[in-house]
Amino acid sequence: MNIDQITLETLRLNVRERALLAETIWESLDSPNTLSSDISDEEAISLARQRDREIEKGEVDSLTHNELMNRLRK
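-> structure tokens emitted (74 positions)
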């Protein structure tokens, strides 16, 4: 089954089942960019502000959700 077929099948599930599936998939991802659950609210806010400054200054480019998903599918 390819990603498009999986997507079609997933969208046939009811909302609760899709939410459970999404949570299961999300939790299965082991990303080096994932923050520890030990991060404080202050640290998270500081990081968000830093990322916002980087985008505003043009140091990094932001992606739309669709752009990100297209890159991940390649």
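Helices lie at 3-11, 15-28, 41-56, 65-73.
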